[in-house]
Amino acid sequence: MHPGESKMRTNRKTARKAAAPVAPRKNAFMHRDKQGHGNKIWIDPDALSVECAICFTPFEAEVFMCKNGHAACAKCCVRINRKCWCCGKPIGDMRCRPLENVLAEMNTHCRFSKYGCTEVVKYIDKSRHEEACPRAPSGCPVDGCTYRGLLLYKHLLDEHSDAVVSVANNLPATTTTLLSLQKSSPFRVLVLERAPDTGEGEGSVFLLLNGGGVLSGRSLSLVRLGPRREGGLEELRYKMEVRGSEPGVLSLEGTAPCVRELEGFEAKMFLFVPDASWAPTDRVSVSIRIG
Ligand SMILES: [Zn+2]
Ligand SMILES: [Zn+2]
Ligand SMILES: [Zn+2]
Ligand SMILES: [Zn+2]
């Protein structure tokens, strides 16, 4: 059997469901609401395909379909070069309005309800809410640690105090934190005493990323671990200076984007530190100022 065969079969099945007319199904549960506004319909998420068959994320406001009715989200239409994943017909111009209308009326719970989020969100806003949900847990970045929760800052100080660098804030602009970075370590963990934008006293966690992916050197950048917040408040300014074996100082000033997961993250702005700077000890010294 071709390796992709069983997956394609599943996809076809999903697409048939996605393209089906959106009349109430046998297993949808009907109930007249108390205000007498007519019938409310509950849909078993398994009864109607409400996720993109390609990326398996919940559909957002726009759903596209090919002329045979196979559905895909806007991003995937671009990803598959606007050729239907199932039948090869063009996809990306025609919207699937009936499915969009149903999706627009659907509500659901945030997936972080077990961490205390009580929000009922529109299904099509689910992904956006969850990215910014203040109750979303953070995973510990330290290698081999499985902690996942709401108190990452405290966890890092309690369990990994030897691996984290504490950064004081609200200090004069000339104060920087100095640390040594090894060429082979993918990041260093930095903790800032207090969440500077909320002042809640919870502290913030930053990673100084030491990325590969560039030729003849490494790419350094700073990110903040946590939910993205509305209005860009989370984007804290920072300045970093790198000193290596070559004379001179490499420096970068920018804002630290917020990331929930490092997986798939690519820094838009970084400081290129060439191989020559790391030799011969494979280390550079980094001074950093946040806020
Ligand atoms: Zn998709
Ligand atoms: Zn198709
Ligand atoms: Zn939430
Ligand atoms: Zn940990």
Commentary on this structure:
- The protein is of the alpha+beta class and 291 residues long.
- Helix content is 17%, strand content 30%.
- It has helices at residues 5-19, 74-79, 97-105, 126-132, 152-159, 275-278; strands at residues 29-32, 39-42, 63-65, 71-73, 107-109, 120-122, 138-139, 148-149, 164-167, 177-182, 187-192, 204-211, 217-225, 236-243, 250-256, 258-259, 271-274, 283-290.
- Mean pLDDT is 81; it is low at 1-33.
Give the distance, in angstroms, between the N- and C-terminal Cα atoms. 57 Å
Give a list of the ligands: zinc ion
Mean pLDDT score? 81
Largest sheet: 6 strands, mixed
Indicate the structural class: alpha+beta
> What amount of the residues lies in strands?
25-35%
- H-E string: HEEEEHHEEHEEHEEEEEEEEEHE
- Poorly predicted sequence stretches spanning 5 or more consecutive residues: 1-33
Helix percent band: 10-25%
**How many H/I helices?**
6
Q: How many strand units?
A: 18
CA radius of gyration: 24 Å
Shape: globular
Oligomer: single chain
Gist of the model:
By secondary structure, the protein is of the alpha+beta class.
List keywords for this structure.
zinc-finger; four-stranded antiparallel beta sheet; 18 strands; alpha+beta; Znf_SIAH; disordered N terminus; 6 helices; six-stranded mixed beta sheet; binds zinc ion; globular; SINL_plant; 291 residues; metal-binding
Task: Please describe the topology of this protein.
Elements: H1 5-19, E1 29-32, E2 39-42, E3 63-65, E4 71-73, H2 74-79, H3 97-105, E5 107-109, E6 120-122, H4 126-132, E7 138-139, E8 148-149, H5 152-159, E9 164-167, E10 177-182, E11 187-192, E12 204-211, E13 217-225, E14 236-243, E15 250-256, E16 258-259, E17 271-274, H6 275-278, E18 283-290
Parallel strand pairs: 9-11, 13-16
Antiparallel strand pairs: 1-2, 3-4, 5-6, 7-8, 10-18, 11-12, 12-13, 13-17, 14-15, 14-18
One zinc ion is lined by residues 52, 54-55, 72-73, 75-76.
